[in-house]
Amino acid sequence: MLVPTVVSDRPASFQDLILRLQTFWAAQGCVILQPYDMEVGAGTFHPATTLRALGPESWNAAYVQPSRRPTDGRYGQNPNRLQHYYQFQVILKPSPPDLQDLYLQSLFALGIDPLMHDLRFVEDDWESPTLGAWGLGWEVWCDGMEVSQFTYFQQVGGIDCRPVSGELTYGLERLAMYVQGVERVYDLAFNDPASPAAKTYGDVFLRAEQDYSAFNFEVADTDMLFRHFEDAEAECARILERRLAQPAYDQCLKASHLFNLLDARGAISVTERQAFIGRVRNLAKACCEMWVEARPKSQVQVEGASARG
Amino acid sequence: MADLLLELFSEEIPARMQMRAAQDLAELLGQALTEAGLAPAGEIRHYATPRRLTVFVPGLPERQANRSIERKGPRADAPAAAREGFLRSLPAGAFTIEERADKKGGATLFALVQEQGRATRDFLSSLLPELLGRLPWPKSMRWGKGETRWVRPLHAILCTLAGETITFGFAGLRSGPTTRGHRFMAPDVLELRTFETYVPTLRAAKVMLDPAERREVIEQRSKALAVGQGLRLKHDPGLLDELAGLVEWPVPLLGRIDSTFMQLPQEVLVTSMREHQRYLAVEDDQGNLAPFFITVANIEARDGGAAIIAGNERVLRARLWDASFFWEQDRTRRLEQGLSRLENTVFHAELGSQGERVRRLTRLVEALCDHVPGADLALAQRAAQLAKADLVSGMVGEFPELQGIMGGYYALEQGESEPVVRAIAEHYLPKGPEDACPTAPVSVVLALADRLDQLVGFFARGIKPTGSKDPFALRRAALGVIRLVLENGLRLPLRSVIQASLFGYGRQLETVDGKALEEDLLGFFADRLKVHLRNEGVRHDLLTAVFAGSADDDLVRLITKVKALQAFLDTDDGRNLLAGYRRAANIVSIEEKKDKRRFADVPNAELAREPAERRLIESLAAAKLSIERAEALEDFNAAMATVAGLRQPIDNFFQAVMVNVPDPPVRENRLRLLAAIRASLGRIADFSVIGDS
After folding, report:
1. Quick one: pLDDT band at residue A5, thresholds 50, 70, 90?
2. Is the pLDDT of residue A309 over 50?
3. Do A123 and B153 make contact, defined as CB atoms within 8 angstroms?
4. B522 and B660: one domain?
5. pTM of the full predicted structure?
6. Is the domain of B181 the same as that of B263?
7. N or C: which end of chain A has fewer CB within 10 A?
8. Cβ–Cβ contact B138 with A under 8 A
9. Its quaternary structure (chain A) (predicted)?
10. Shared-domain flag, residues B200 and B231
11. Based on the domain organization, do B170 and B223 belong to the same domain?
12. CATH no. for residue B459?
């Protein structure tokens, strides 16, 4: 059970916060992965969560995932909102009995003292209509601020999770703003503020936020995006005929991001919106089903690959 | 006698589910114990915190009494296999068999089974796993490799009887005598065996068990914090209940709101604070929001809460910064500019866009203005045109619960007239029973139009509430119409405004049967009205009687009539007349069945043989006219007085006259007379559905 004795000092930079979380979860036996190399809206979409949450094998992993939400762009003018931000994602399957305590210890490792701050688990059921997934859990609040999402997956891709995975998602910018005590995301120290080439989050990302906001809202070619959506959808189906779950899932991710861009461009009416979400969900479900159905074969391939590597 | 203590210790249970679950657990347990002959001597108590459900059962018997149960077997002369099978089904060595004669002259086997009473402890250890498995949760989940469902992962079960552990297994756990204190302030294992030590030990471990006490502490300390600033706590009982379910050890803390944000509309501040952050608000003695908030922490912080306050102030600043941004942005555009975007905003997939809805409302207010005294049509149309424009504003996008309210502010900002501003702001009211009903004429018109359009559209598409499901809040919409009509004393012809609303949908609903829709909706209004008036002590059956006996669609008139009828039936005349009505109606319906025909023609005075018979015919004829006159004048007390005058002639008739006489024309005439009683009273209401008061 929880013994809140060791509370570290606070990480001084954004990257130090990430390194602390990686070190902490590596020490819990997690596979530390790198971000998935495709555009996704949240860490949950990484196949290390979506696909690995299915099936009976144990699976503990942690990774940073850049997340793109085109509609949240504010041209770099809003102190809290970004169209591109980072999530730190942890998935533990089966969910261990001390998952809440592990999570809290990870906050202690970031210098958050539970006897100085008000840490709370506030009801928040999670649902992803595009992934056909849902779970029960909480938002975790630190002094009234949501710093993480905590979910016990019940279904992914419409398939019951057995065993159940526990998913932790840390909103890294928010958490870092809290830890560093800054009020504007662009003021975050990205690397060591005492280093000769100290950089803020704004130095690294402000221009990208401005440019992508313009691209997402004004420039993206909607006709082309619609075409690419159709292509990804068709390609996903074709790959599934060859029973290749993860390559097919890549196409589902593409379709999902294309939909988000179209949404930001205002090219999808509210009525059509549901239909598009349904199309992405159908792809996600089919990929998840294939992942489960073709499991023994893909495992053999993974083993073969690692033997050569 | 032995006391039972049961605690289920889990991860955080949603606040809204805690007390219900504890209550359900106490009820299930009480029921199972009583059924097993183990009724407790005292009242079962239940408690909940975010992490535990606790039930205390005082004074259980040590064991069940021995019981003798009778079981019926096959006939004594049944084949040997059947008799042996019966014997085998009984517990060995604990029964006696007897033969009893049955009605058919044979004999049947009966077994008297001696059932040994079990020790309460043993009974509970087999009962509890099964009982916990059927505790209902609004939503439940599995975790880890387990298949058990609970609201969130369960961690420990404390169960003792008379201080001794009761051991059983549930959800992969073994019950024991231990639990834990506060998550951070007292996380160690506590061994607890009796309720007498349980409560104070938990308190020492920074857990206040009783939600009522936590609520009281939150309220009193928050009041003191407000008073400390020369202010007062804003009354918010619902939020206090919720807060009591969010903490085991409540510590209210006072924070400040930056003065720059105080220029935001109060509703924006309150929504940010209450809905998103669960902060209590503080106000001055005029009821104006003061620049403070109260957050309820779950710990006594080492620094007295300074860091927690600072953190919460930051969070609120960020939220209000967003709100200020929308407030500034939205006010740079006129509401009209949002209208084109409403064309792409769906009202409902089967009922078109919000743009179409605005056009319908703008037309429908025309039909409604005629019936709302003082309502100016041009103003009502202007209000209808702008009413939904705030749905595409930044602020309502962020805070959907501010719809209407923001529209009102933006309308004021762009110089709309006061009635228009007010109508836009109020047109979603009343939302719940605690909301006041709009009274300004233009507001009333718009609020009625909004709900009628919704009710007509959804009912026409066959989308109606069923059981507990009412996703579009149509019951609330109907109740809104009822309250708007009754509280403003409106003489609103519901049928014609329903038709006007349907007409407004145009080709979209052109295949709908308007007459059927009208009946459907009036029935729905009648049902809602019954629920609404039940609280005012208006009798259910009388409402049904008045509604069934009439094609009237004027709620004010119908209610006046129901109230007059209720007052009349409380008098001696009323009760006797009802008895006379029933007697008459009974005889007629029996004879109608016998003769396979209806008696509906007017009775013939020439065929009347007895004076009492003639008197009644005359009285009914006179009453018919005066009831008609009174109804036309809506003087229902006069109508009731007329009806009361029929009591004596009816009583006399039944005393002096025999109905079923051998002479067929005389008999038929008397039956017609009885049918005429039924018909006369039917003008007032359908007396056949009236029960005894």
Report:
1. low
2. no
3. no
4. no
5. 0.79
6. no
7. C
8. no
9. Tetramer of two alpha and two beta subunits.
10. no
11. no
12. 1.10.3210
The pLDDT of residue A4 is 52
Kindly give, in sequence order, each residue whose CB lies less than 8 Å from that of residue B457, ignoring residues fewer than 6 positions away.
Answer: B347, B348, B351, B505, B509
Inspect the interface and report whether the beta carbons of A118 and B12 lie closer than 8 Å: no
Task: Report d(CA B174, CA B323) in Å as an integer.
Answer: 51
A14-215 carries CATH number 3.30.930.10: yes
Is ipTM > 0.90 here?
yes
Looking up tokens 């050569």, which residue turns up? A308
pLDDT digits (tens, 9 = 90+) for A112-171: 999 999 999 999 989 999 999 999 999 999 999 999 999 999 999 999 999 999 999 999
Q: What is the pLDDT of residues B504-539, one digit of tens each?
A: 998 888 888 989 999 999 989 988 988 888 877 888
Residue A26 has pLDDT above 80, yes or no: yes
CA A57 to chain centre: 21
Residue where the block lists tokens 């009922």: B351
**B155, two tokens:** 């961690």
The per-residue pLDDT for B680 is: 84
B contact test, residue of A143, A262, A268 with most B CBs within 10 A: A143
Task: Indicate if B367 and B295 belong to the same structural domain.
Answer: no
For A136, the closest of B139, B299, B302 (CB atoms) is B139
- Check if B187 contacts A (Cβ < 8 Å): yes
Same domain for B233 and B174: no
Specify if B242 maps to a domain: yes
CB < 8 Å to A185, chain B: none
φ/ψ of B174, rounded to 5, equals -105, 135
Instruction: Tell me if A269 and B145 make a contact (CB, 8 A cut-off).
Output: no
Cβ–Cβ < 8 Å for B631, B682: no
pLDDT band at A15 (very low <50, low <70, confident <90, very high): very high
How far is the alpha carbon of B465 from chain A, nearest alpha carbon, in Å? 23
Last residue of one domain, picked from the residues B183, B204, B225:
B204
| Residue of A105, A122, A123 to mutate, interface with B, max B Cβ within 10 Å | A123
On chain A, the residues whose CB falls within 8 A of the CB of B307 are 116-117, 143
Which tokens is A209 given? 């936020």
Domain boundary among B181, B204, B227: B204
Of B279, B311, B317, the CB nearest to A143: B311
Q: Is residue B55 located within the same domain as residue B126?
A: yes
Judge whether B552 lies within some domain: no
Judging contacts by C-beta atoms under 8 Å, the chain B residues touching residue A269 are 344, 346
Q: Does the beta carbon of B258 lie under 8 angstroms from any beta carbon of chain A? A: no
Instruction: Give A296→chain B minimum CA distance, Å.
Output: 21
User: Is B307 in the A-facing interface, judged by CB distances under 8 Å?
Assistant: yes
Query: Which chain B residues touch A163 with a CB distance below 8 Å?
Result: 144-145
CATH superfamily of A221-301: Class II aaRS and biotin synthetases; domain 2 (1.20.58.180)
Residue B295 lies in a domain: yes
Collect all residues of chain A within an 8 Å Cβ-Cβ radius of residue B299: 114-115, 118
- B482 lies in the same domain as B525: yes
* Pure H helices in B461-571: 474-487, 494-504, 514-534, 540-548, 555-569
Reduced to 3 states, what is the DSSP secondary structure of residue A25? helix
The residue extents of the domains of chain A are 14-215, 221-301
Query: What would the 3-class secondary structure string for B410-432 be?
Result: HHHHCCCCHHHHHHHHHCCCCCC
Answer whether B318 touches A (CB < 8 Å). Answer: yes
Report whether A44 contacts A167 (CB < 8 A): yes
Q: Is residue B398 part of a domain?
A: yes
Range of the domain at B633: 566-689
Q: Looking at the 3D structure of chain B, how many domains does it have?
A: 4
Task: Look up the CATH number of the domain holding residue B619.
Answer: 1.10.730
Q: Exposure pattern of B555-587 as b/e (b: 16+ CB <10 Å)?
A: bebbbbbbbbbbebbeeebbeebbebbebbbeb
Cβ separation A154–B142 shorter than 8 A: yes
